[in-house]
Amino acid sequence: MTSETGQRVLKLLAERFNIKPTDIVLNIPLAQMLPVDSLELVELIVKIEDEFGVNVAEGINMQKDTLASLIDFIEDRQ
Fold it and tell me: Could you tell me the pTM of the whole model?
């Protein structure tokens, strides 16, 4: 079971990219898991920064880091 922050991130991804929460994998790189281009990844970063009030660009590499890493990063800064 993921945390409240994790659930919020999963919901955001599911709604933003029209994917089922059950299809979201926590342990592979975000860019590999999400069917998006680099512009959409940037838009996702902005949406997450707005939603959670953190600067994702300073600590997360969307090409290499996993969703689990992103959730941990957000939680560590809240």
Answer: 0.84
CA atoms of 30 and 12, how far apart (whole Å) = 14
Instruction: Name the nearest CA neighbour of 72 among 6, 4, 1.
Output: 6
Q: Which residues of 63-76 are buried (b: 16+ CB within 10 A; e: fewer)?
A: eebbbebbbbbbee
What's the token pair of residue 27?
Answer: 């342990």
Rounded to an integer, what distance in angstroms lies between the CA atom of residue 72 and that of residue 69?
5
Segment 58-70 shows an average pLDDT of: 85
> Hey, which residues does 66 pair with through a beta bridge?
29
Angstrom distance (rounded) from CA 22 to CA 52: 22
